[in-house]
Specification:
The complex is a heterodimer of chains A (about 475) and B (about 400). With about 475 residues, chain A is mostly helical. Helix content of chain A is about 65%, strand content about 0%. Chain A has two domains: about 240 residues, no CATH class; about 160 residues, no CATH class. Chain A has a two-stranded antiparallel sheet with strand order 1-2. The model of chain A has no long low-confidence stretch (mean pLDDT about 95). In chain B, strand 13, helix 12 and strand 14 form a beta-alpha-beta unit. Chain B folds into two domains: about 40 residues; about 350 residues, Ribonuclease Z/Hydroxyacylglutathione hydrolase-like (Metallo-beta-lactamase, Chain A). In chain B, helix 6 packs across helix 9. Chain B is of the alpha/beta class. Classes of the chains: A mainly alpha (about 475), B alpha/beta (about 400).
């Protein structure tokens, strides 16, 4: 079969080099070591480059993520040839693709956002413009980095959504680089629109008096979110980013892949992701209120609604880490049951693991990341180390074929054929048995949710993560 | 029914149940979590109504609110060192400078150059450090004198914080007569709100005049901070505040907040006063916990006259570097609902915040902009504010 009609990631199969858990253990060890080394070099406030100022480091790790997604998912590694991808040693491939991504990131940040947009469009993208307005060097750089970072946050939801939910439609049949350029431009355009209606007001409030000189609409979400901060948007956008990847990995695009009609399936997937993300977003906000008490508008940190919305996004990212780990390094365990059962088990397992990662992070991160203990330090964002770790996962699995624990082998014709068939799932069909199960399951799911919200205040009263 | 059919039916049921479970959980999250019904079931605050007594009045003299004189230099130094998470003792600011440049400072290096001079010769110690430090003319400091009148007319004096620059603080102490009050042991205690450079590093200036004054610090102080207390020549009784509420005298209590703060500092203590027939007055160094969290904590824990918030004084930590963020507007929008009658703010509150408070019609007490304070929008160096009669 001609593999050129498949993306590189679809055309390869990752095979363990050793049996049992050894590949996962070796990769985990190496990834954590690489994480800590690169953290020390680039991000750590005690380290070499100290980009965790925090917004500069935040911007960098966000844009790294989006460039990785563009390179692997949208451009299908163009301009690198398939033969080069198949034959080059994973270490060299990883190094070259990462360097190219970093170069693209610098070009985009410095060239597009700072020099073009910042000089000829919106001043807050360019630190020099802000300095000229009388803002200190430090905050000028931080504000510009925050704005550029927020753009990446939106794009890191919309760009993979176009591939995962919309299946590259309507450009799925055109070749590279035309398809990649088109989808990047389209998602960039949509990201721009979303940025203007979510984050532009937030950024413009930085300038006094805000509505008059910056021509923004006052924050329309104020009454609903109980804050004028754009952190409300960060919350749901981050949940969208996480749900996209859950949908792609541990959910195997279920249940929307049961819809046979192409357009309907794509629209349902795209908006279904948003609806699920909103549900998650509201729950994570409410969960904080249950544990820490209701917010006080106008205060700072833990009790402030703006911080709680930010923390929604942070908690969601804590769920993304075990989600990707399970998919990348544990063979998307479990796989032996039916797809709905697998999806259900993976969802519960990753949610529990997310809680474990969350607790471990807040109990220990200040001991080795150069950060400070506490939940709501105004200059600390757990998303930075979490996304930094996720970036390394992606470099390892997308760019290096899971080296050293795994190696890439071409898929057989049958396996490639399955990729096409997989777009519409056929293993779940509507029957009376399904209907009964669905009703009972819905009730159990609601009961589970109820149990959790009754449990959370008790957890808040009886457990202290940070002493 | 055949076994095969039963199996198929059971498998389908399980598939449906698994799908339904996840869908049901998300449906619950989406439809209930942020709804009015969800918030109706949240418990109301149970007020502890801790009775810490009553006092007649509190007068605050602003010894110094100008913690630094050039914002660009201060934040530039922090920026050069790597940002707002870098350990403050490594920034290479006096009195912990070693001449090795940005982010290369250390407590041990710095203190070793001046330890023998503390606290008796702070002038010489500061001169030595000025030669080693980044932007040595920038430090000022934050400190205020608090005079509390009991119901029977007895007066008590306290210091909140002790500033930063030895020279600046020494001059400020002399300007306000604090040096003599300390020598005469009229001041009953020194409260250090938190470990930051501009509130704590001027400790030898207080020690020069009274090194046995009772001293209160938050239990989040790092080893360097605790060592500095010893190295400053302190010989008195150190109290490490480790309880949420520590009563001091009738009508005065020390409140403790566990909050992470920039440049590797943890925790802040602030003061609460119950003024007879007026209500609660809150006084803070920087108020990193947030003024409304401070007020909310007092509401949940303390009993005070008229059950009313009466006044605020101190740095409110809104825009200390004249930076801004939409969340600061949340405070400007909502502060009015708390009903404070007198707002005496300065220092890390930020000029822009004070300006916005005034524009919003809040009862901000204006200052005189003397002794290098930059704005009349808030209480400057040498200004006083009285709460109560």
């Amino acid at each position: 079969m001609d593999t050129s009609s498949f993306s590189y990631l679809e055309s390869r199969k990752l095979v363990k080099r050793w049996s049992g858990p050894i590949p996962a253990l070796i990769n985990t060890f190496l990834i954590l070591a690489f994480f800590y080394l690169t953290w020390w070099i680039f991000q750590d406030p005690r380290g070499l480059m100290r980009m965790y100022t925090p917004y500069v480091g935040y911007m960098v790790c966000r844009w790294m993520l989006i460039i990785f997604i563009w390179l692997a998912y949208i451009f299908d590694f163009w301009p690198f040839k398939r033969t080069w991808l198949n034959k080059t040693h994973p270490l060299i491939k990883g190094a070259v693709l990462t360097i190219v991504s970093v170069a693209a990131m610098i070009l985009l940040i410095k060239g597009f956002f700072v020099e073009i947009l910042g000089n000829f469009g919106i001043a807050y993208f360019n630190p020099d413009r802000l300095i000229a307005m009388g803002i200190t060097d430090f905050y000028s750089i931080e504000y510009a980095a925050e704005a550029i970072m927020m753009f990446a946050a939106i794009a890191s939801w919309l760009s993979p959504s176009w591939v995962v939910a919309c299946e590259n439609a309507p450009w799925q049949k055109i070749g590279q680089p035309a398809r990649g350029i088109t989808i990047v431009l389209v998602t960039f355009f949509f990201s721009m629109v979303v940025y203007f209606v979510t984050m532009h007001s937030h950024m413009a409030i930085l300038f006094y008096p805000w509505q008059k000189f910056t021509a923004i609409c006052p924050p329309y979400w104020e009454q609903f979110a109980n804050t004028v901060s754009g952190n409300f948007h960060i919350a749901w956008i981050m949940c969208c980013t996480v749900v996209v990847w859950q949908f792609e990995t541990i959910w195997e695009r279920y249940p929307f892949n049961l819809i046979k009609h192409d357009t309907l399936r794509r629209v349902a997937s795209f908006f279904g992701i948003i609806i699920i993300a909103l549900a998650l977003c509201f729950f994570l906000f409410y969960a904080q209120d249950l544990v820490w008490g209701q917010t006080i508008r106008g205060t700072r940190r833990l009790m402030a609604p703006d911080w709680r919305w930010l923390h929604v996004g942070e908690m969601a990212i804590f769920w993304l880490v075990p989600t990707l780990y399970l998919n990348f390094y544990c063979g998307n365990w479990p796989t032996k049951f039916s797809r709905p059962v697998n999806v259900c088990i993976r969802t519960i397992v990753t949610a529990l693991l997310a809680v474990v990662v969350y607790v471990i992070y807040y109990k220990t991160s200040h001991l080795f990341l150069g950060t400070q203990k506490g939940f709501s330090h105004p200059q600390q964002f757990p998303m930075i180390p979490m996304i930094w770790l996720i970036n390394i996962f992606l470099m390892n699995v997308w760019f290096m074929d899971g080296w050293p624990g795994w190696k890439a082998v071409p898929k057989t014709e049958e396996e490639l054929a399955e990729v096409h068939e997989e777009i519409v799932a056929s293993d779940v069909k509507w029957t009376p048995g399904i209907a009964k199960g669905l009703v009972i399951g819905l009730l159990v799911g609601l009961a589970l949710y109820t149990a959790v919200i009754y449990l959370l205040p008790w957890i808040g009263a009886n457990f202290t993560i940070i002493k | 029914m055949s076994n095969d059919t039963k199996n198929v039916s059971r498998r389908d049921f399980v598939k449906g149940a698994a799908t339904g479970l996840v869908a049901g959980a998300f449906a619950g999250m989406g439809m209930y979590s942020y709804s009015p019904w969800a918030y109706e079931r949240l418990p109301k605050t149970e007020r502890k109504m801790h009775d810490f007594g009553t006092c007649r009045s509190v007068r605050v003299t602003n010894i110094s609110e100008t913690s630094w004189f050039n914002n660009a230099h201060l934040i530039g130094d922090i920026h050069e060192a790597g940002g707002l998470l870098v350990n403050q003792y490594t920034l290479n600011w006096a009195p912990f400078a070693n001449g090795k440049g940005s982010a290369q400072g250390s407590y041990d290096d710095g203190i070793s150059s001046i330890k023998d001079l503390l606290p008796h010769d702070i002038e010489k110690a500061w001169e030595i450090q000025k030669k080693l430090a980044l932007h040595p003319e920038n430090p000022g400091g934050y400190s205020c004198l608090i005079e509390v009148e009991e119901l029977d007319g007895t007066m008590h004096k306290y210091l909140l914080d002790t500033g930063w620059s030895y020279k600046w603080m020494n001059d400020c102490f002399k300007r306000e007569g604090i040096d003599q009050m300390l020598r005469d042991q009229e001041i009953e205690a020194l409260f250090i709100s938190h470990e930051h450079w501009d509130h704590f590093w001027g400790l030898p200036v207080t020690m020069k005049y009274d090194n046995r004054i009772p001293l209160y610090v938050h239990d989040g102080f790092y080893d360097e901070g605790l060592q500095y207390i010893k190295d400053s020549g302190y010989k008195g009784e150190l109290t490490i505040a480790n309880k949420p509420v520590t009563p001091i005298i009738p009508g005065m209590a020390l409140l403790k907040f566990d909050v992470p703060i920039i440049n590797r500092v943890f925790g802040e203590t602030s003061l609460a006063f119950n003024i007879k027939d007026k209500g609660l007055v809150l006084i803070s160094g920087c108020c990193h916990q947030g003024i409304l969290k401070f007020a909310d904590f007092a509401y949940a824990n303390l009993k005070y006259d008229n059950d009313k918030f009466y006044g605020i004084y101190g740095g409110l930590h809104i825009s200390p570097f004249e930076d801004w963020d939409p969340k600061y507007d949340d405070l400007v929008i909502s502060l009015g609902q708390w009903g404070f009658e007198r707002i005496g703010c300065n220092h890390c509150t930020g000029h822009l915040t004070a300006k916005k408070f005034i524009e919003s019609g809040y009862p901000v007490v204006r200052g005189t902009a003397r002794f290098r304070s930059a704005s009349k929008d808030y209480l400057g160096n040498g200004d006083k504010i009285t709460f109560g009669c």
